[in-house]
Specification:
Shape: elongated
CATH architecture of the largest domain: 2-Layer Sandwich
Radius of gyration: 51 Å
CATH superfamily of the largest domain: Band 7 domain
Order of helices and strands: HEEEEEEEEHHHHHHEEHEHHH
CATH class of the largest domain: Alpha Beta
Length: about 350
Amino acid sequence: MSRQGESGSILISVVIAIAALVFLGYNSLYTVDEWEQAIVTQFGEIIGEPVTEAGLHFKWPFIQQVHLFERRLLRWDGRETTTITRDRKTIVIDVTARWRIDDARRFMESVRYVERARSRLNGIIEGAVKDEIAKFDLYEVVRSSNRILEDQDAPLRMMIDDEELDNEDMEDLATLGAEVRPLRREDDRYLAGRPVALSGILEEAQNRLKQIDLGIHLEDVLVKQLNYSAAIEANVYAQMNAELEKISAGFRSIGRERAETRLGEMERELATIHSRAVEQSERIRGDAEAQAIRIYAEAYNEDPDFYRFLRTLQTYDRILSDNSTLIIGSDSPLYELFNTVE
């Protein structure tokens, strides 16, 4: 064989060897991200503990496989659940939850896939919801505190001054037209309310998960929506409208009463102002007339003839106009002015 043929064979062998090494390396190494954890299996059996350290890791090629799982919180959204409260009210509740894979080895052995885990959570969480909601009355599931009772007079106090507020009106209007029961409390701790119900649902679901041990940790459960069932929704809305009508009627009654009171006060104030203005104007007019009389008297005493002459001219000015004809007798005081003219 020629040297050229031997060189070609060696080159091909080297290329094949390099390709084989690359192939083996590709199948021997794997990476784990910061938000992941890995389980290595050999012929279907789990080998070692879960790999949680991020970076590059080694496995035996071909005979070992790597399964990656999330370490971050995952979201679960269940179906709307129809359940009954302790006071026999049918409601439709929609909840959501957050969970994570707490034990990847046990998760791999029990459910293996995330979608299968979500399916298992459906029955667990929905069962916990039904069991816990049945322990509370409807108002204890809806409300979170007794603030509605503690601050029930706030709307009225925004409209009516404290000194004008009647306690009976407060009791009648501020209760929203119905009896509002307080949430059960023990010292400063609530025994009922939405947070208490959600805490009970979470605790019950966590206990059920521990019993079947799926390698899952349930972080929290939240209510997305809570409605009455369609059969009683119309009656509930009608009752709410009636309560609100009662509240609005009460506010309108108080408003009309206050408007009439303010209108009466305004009319009395206007009458007082008017009487004071009339009194003041009469006093000013009297003072002016007195002063005028005094001035006239002083002028008359100063020169009676001139004063009489001036008053006669003023009289002519008042009674005569353009194209007027005046007929007077010789004994008339008005005639004296003409009689003295030479």
